[in-house]
Amino acid sequence: xxxxxxxxxxxxxxxxxxxxxxxxxxxxxxxxxxxxxxxxxxxxxxxxxxxxxxxxxxxxxxxxxxxxxxxxxxxxxxxxxxxxxxxxxxxxxxxxxxxxxxxxxxxxxxxxxxxxxxxxxxxxxxxxxxxxxxxxxxxxxxxxxxxxxxxxxxxxxxxxxxxxxxxxxxxxxxxxxxxxxxxxxxxxxxxxxxxxxxxxxxxxxxxxxxxxxxxxxxxxxxxxxxxxxxxxxxxxxxxxxxxxxxxxxxxxxxxxxxxxxxxxxxxxxxxxxxxxxxxxxxxxxxxxxxxxxxxxxxxxxxxxxxxxxxxxxxxxxxxxxxxxxxxxxxxxxxxxxxxxxxxxxxxxxxxxxxxxxxxxxxxxxxxxxxxxxxxxxxxxxxxxxxxxxxxxxxxxxxxxxxxxxxxxxxxxxxxxxxxxxxxxxxxxxxxxxxxxxxxxxxxxxxxxxxxxxxxxxxxxxxxxxxxxxxxxxxxxxxxxxxxxxxxxx
Length: 489
Ligand code: HEM
Hints:
Blueprint: H1 2-5, H2 8-24, H3 38-46, H4 51-60, E1 68-73, E2 76-81, H5 84-92, E3 98-100, H6 108-113, H7 122-139, H8 142-157, E4 164-165, H9 166-183, H10 198-210, H11 213-217, H12 227-256, H13 266-271, H14 280-311, H15 313-327, H16 336-341, H17 343-355, E5 365-367, E6 371-372, E7 378-379, E8 384-387, H18 389-393, H19 430-447, E9 448-451, E10 477-482
Parallel strand pairs: 2-8
Antiparallel strand pairs: 1-2, 3-5, 4-10, 5-8, 6-7, 9-10
Helix pairs in contact: 3-4, 8-9, 8-19, 9-14, 10-12, 14-15, 14-17, 14-19, 15-17, 15-19
The structure holds protoporphyrin IX containing FE (HEM).
The site of protoporphyrin IX containing FE has 26 residues, from helix 7, helix 14 and helix 19.
């Protein structure tokens, strides 16, 4: 009898009944919130139907547009915010109400990201932001981005008229610029498109293994001596060795330089903080967090910009005319003044981030104290809560569905536009990312005609992988054709 109860099919059946009962019985407080149908949602994820479909299932679940939906996930009942009014309540709360990223110390996510800003909370996070933000402001330099863009242009001239995977290309340039910004280090990401530099390869493999679905379903499995776990530990060790080597080299270079020299890299600015309780390990964690938060997001955003330019030749033409008017020469690197003048290109970037917000959904927060949204709805302690930026950006009461950069020309500060989030946990790389996108887009427009291959299946919408938080284009090819003559003014 006892052995029958512990046989595998019975355990699976009992677990199934337990999950289904929980799935259909939310806590009483969550009852007024519409539910995302679990099977429909699971199908879109399991069959890899893409982000457009995931988001359609979410938006169809809330026909009355309450602005909140609930969904049952492995971690339990989760509430997603989908309108700006509720988002403002979310932004107003601090880490003592909404706690982010609680992972055990021995978990691979913690081993890799350590205690860098993205995973820190409370005093620790505030201290890190205070240190990183001034270092960031001192490091903003369009010249550095322009030099890397010239390397990209030289590389793409070798691939004239050939359809290229846009995300792969854009990752190259964002890794290169971030290497310079963060470490004053040449990542060699733009030497060729065929070979992937060690740093990028290692980072990609680590992040792929860290997102092992097994860790989500059976969270204890990261502790087992599995092949994938051992490989992950070795890769993190290799990554750490490299990052510490880069830090040591930079320290040596700085020691040999004249005191008066101005430094634009984050590492030089942050090394000044070593001591006073700030250690080399803290520095390593910070640089890893910044590198991680900064390159795929902007690479995706740029992929969306070039996709939209390829799809709308008339907008591309207008943007190129602006670049010619402000910069003239096809090899000119924009100055900070030029960046301010490239207003139409900035509007394209903002509209592109609206339609395709790189972070579609914020990582979940644990609600630590009951959180009131309106008279009827109070989210109870212990619920997971996230903000779905994609849904806020697609609200048909506020935005039309088309790509219209003009809407951002005279309205720079639209409160419904939140690709970088808002409040105390907003993105510290926002200004850098926007500047980077302006410089790269303007310089590329002066050198290339941008198009989709004629046989492309993607003229209708950008194909997106169904990652939960961050968006990735799925096998999206773009053609860069060398412009023979740029009219100089
Ligand atoms: C288009 C590009 C980018 C987008 C759409 C974006 C978006 C975001 C969003 C939505 C958050 C909030 C995450 C949360 O609340 O959990 C965030 C945080 C953050 N971002 Fe970005 N980001 C971009 C580029 C960058 C860049 C270039 C850097 C650095 C070089 C960066 C560094 C960070 C960091 C360190 C945080 C954590 C801040 C904190 O938790 O206090 N981001 N970003």
